[in-house]
Amino acid sequence: MTENPTEEVLTLNNVEVVYDYVSLAIKGVSLAVPKGGMVALLGANGAGKSTTLKSISGLLAAERGEVRRGEVKFQDRNISGLMPQDRVKLGIAHVLEGRRVFEHLTPDENLIAASAVRSRHDAARNKDRVYSYFPRLFERRSSAAGYLSGGEQQMLAIGRALMTQPKLLMLDEPSLGLAPFLVAEIFQILSRINREEGLSVLLVEQNAIAALEIVSHGYLIESGRIVMHDTAEALKKNPDIQEFYLGGAENKNFRDIKHYRRRKRWLT
Amino acid sequence: MLFRQAGILHTNYAQDRALFPIPADRWMIGGLLLLAAAAPFYMSTLYLSSYMLPWLVWTAAALGLNLILGWAGQFHLGYAAVMGIGAYAAVHAQRNGVPWEIAIVLAGLTAAVIGSVFAFAALRVKGLYLALSTLALQFVMDWTISHVPAISGGTQATLQAPDIRILGQAVTSDAGLYYVALVWCVLVTTFMLNLRRTALGRALVAVREKDYAAAVIGVNSFYFKLVAFATSSFIAGVGGAILIGTFYHAVTPEQFSVDVSIQALAMVIVGGLGSIIGSYFGAGFILLMPGVMNTFISWLTAQFGFSLGIETLAHLPHALYGALIIGFLLIEPLGLGKIYGNIRDYLLVWPFGYVKK
Question: Which of B62, B127, B248, B250 has the most CB atoms within 10 Å of its CB?
């Protein structure tokens, strides 16, 4: 991680999110995404991963949540008070968990719908670009999006985000419910986009094995706190990460394992 | 503080599943019940019979509408018509010599039967289409009541409602009528409070949240929508009969017209969907706020010595009342009940700002 703050496209400083006035979801999350970098946010269910993403894209209000403390800075600008649509204009794209494509529109229309914040000329170019990354979408461009397979819908959701010409792409569990070979395909395309266009990516994943293959850095979130931050290589070697997120070490003698279930807690 | 969760430890399931698990709630409900029961002794008859009584009757009615709108999540724009069915059924039954106690049950049953026969057809559509078809129920009922002389006693007719008789004893005093309304309101409230803890209540909520998700866990969504319509129609029917018996003392079709339906809907939405205390607040707000606003504006003009034209004086309270509704819904889209809930939550976790869930 670089020391120069201008090199970071997104920084979160001690962000605290409270739902429904009383329920604290994340407590003091700080993280940074370097310009052109690829960062993963890993954690178990309910750790606060999606809440963190929503605090960046501004979708908390719809779920009666609010950022109580801390600041979200995008390109050195505090964006805490902005509406979601204005954040999109600044260049933040959020690919929602569970795909959420416009089911009754075709992929083509889905993509055009996402070009509202850019000019018509850009829209045509962006669409070609999306189709070049996802040739499968081009093949199916005129059937209803609701009838696409899960993987194609995920590609469409990512493509739709790319239509807004983002500077930061946030993905919430793109591997959810997809076959392993499709996960590999989508992740390859993601790292290609990152490499070719210098697009910064913040990836939220449960599938830590796949995620750590393509990112440079990873954050580990547990119970609403960042508990670990390191390079992907170091995280992969960390014995705790191996046991709790990567499915454990192989060739383990089960007689040596303690009889109670070990659960790692880094804090509290 | 008043509400406190710390130190309240439940040691068995019965305690944990109590209607009011927090003692402060129990004390407050007990205190309010005592206050309500003693109301005739410290309130003037004006307040008792023209504010408290309609408030209680309409709260019970709003709770019935909340069952269908807030719990089962189905639109109902013809609620007043269903109340009207109950009112006419009760009046006709009483005129034919049926005792009052049986007449109001008949009123409820008639409303429930007509309501569910109608719902049987209407529930095949969802959302806005259901809203429209319930509106059709309202108009069909309006037309039927006013055009069938056997029901309304002829066009423009007003049917006198016989006195309420409980066990042969005529109830005519203001206090007596007030107690009838109070008992009915407490009954409906108890039913609704317990509904939340029953299989029926949970099934209704499942249907509300996503009817096909409810279907795949084995909840027959059509059946439960129908049950919700029938139950809410029963409450509406009895409520209509009690409204006529205790407040209007005579029944005309206009008392149950479409704007009354809208008013009932406003009570539920302003109070809060699916909130019981919200129905109390909502009914109180919709019924009493216009009067309060009127008094407030006259007080203002008297206090500051300026005079308003008669037109302005007539319309200003309504404009302010509308602005207040919008204002409250902007502050808290889930209604007055949720505002109360927020304050209560704040006190529950005080002195801390929030809890980790």
Answer: B62
CATH code of the domain in which B259 resides: 1.10.3470
Calculate ∠ Cα B62-B81-B287, nearest 5°.
Answer: 40
Tokens (6 digits) for B61: 């009615």
Residues of B in contact with A19 (CB under 8 A): 357
Q: How far apart are CA A78 and CA A58, in angstroms?
A: 12
Mutate to test the interface with B, among A22, A24, A64, A222 (most CBs of B within 10 A): A22
Predicted confidence band of residue B304 (pLDDT cuts 50, 70, 90)? confident
ipTM for the whole complex: 0.72
Q: B interface mutation test: which of A21, A63, A66 has the most B CBs within 10 A?
A: A21
Identify whether the C-beta of residue B111 lies closer than 8 Å to the C-beta of residue B233: yes
What residue numbers bound the domain in which A36 lies?
5-91+166-244
Domain total in chain A: 1
- pLDDT of B217 strictly over 70: yes
How crowded is the C-beta side of B186, counted as CA atoms within 13 Å?
A: 13
Chain A CB within 8 Å of residue B330 CB: no
Distance from the Cα of A138 to chain B's closest Cα (Å) equals: 32
User: Which of B345, B348, B355 has its CB closest to that of A24?
Assistant: B355
Q: Establish if A177 belongs to a structural domain.
A: yes
CB atoms A21 and B345 under 8 Å: yes
The 10s digit of each residue's pLDDT in A199-239 is 999 999 888 888 998 999 999 998 888 988 999 999 988 88
Whether B345 sits inside 8 A of A27 (CB atoms) is no
**B354: which chain A residues are within 8 Å (Cβ-Cβ)?**
18, 21-24
Expressed as residue numbers, the domain containing B298 is 38-349
Structure tokens at A50: 């999606």
Do residue B165 and residue B254 come from a single domain? yes
- Chain-chain contact of B356 with A22 (C-beta, under 8 angstroms): no
CATH number at residue A58: 3.40.50.300
- The sheet carrying A168-172 orders its strands as A92-95, A168-172, A200-205, A38-43, A217-222, A225-231
Is the Cα dihedral B198, B69, A97, A79 positive or negative? negative
Contact yes or no for A27 and B353 at CB 8 A: no
The pLDDT tens digits of the residues spanning A71-123 come to: 999 998 999 889 999 999 999 999 998 888 999 999 999 999 998 888 888 89
Tell me which of B315 and B233 has the higher pLDDT. B233
Q: Do B141 and B27 fall into the same domain?
A: no
Contact criterion met (CB < 8 Å) for B354 and A224? no
Q: Are residues B56 and B108 in the same domain?
A: yes
Q: Which residue of B has its CA nearest to A24?
A: B356
* B309 and B291 share one domain: yes
- Interface residues of A toward B, Cβ cutoff 8 Å, are 18-25, 27, 68, 223-224
Query: Which of chain B's residues have a Cβ under 8 Å away from the Cβ of A223?
Result: 356
Closest to A148 in 3D by CA, of A96, A100, A103, A95: A103
Q: pLDDT (tens digit, 9 = 90+) per residue, B158-182?
A: 888 888 888 888 888 999 999 999 9
pLDDT, position A268:
46
Question: Are B30 and B117 part of one and the same domain?
Answer: no
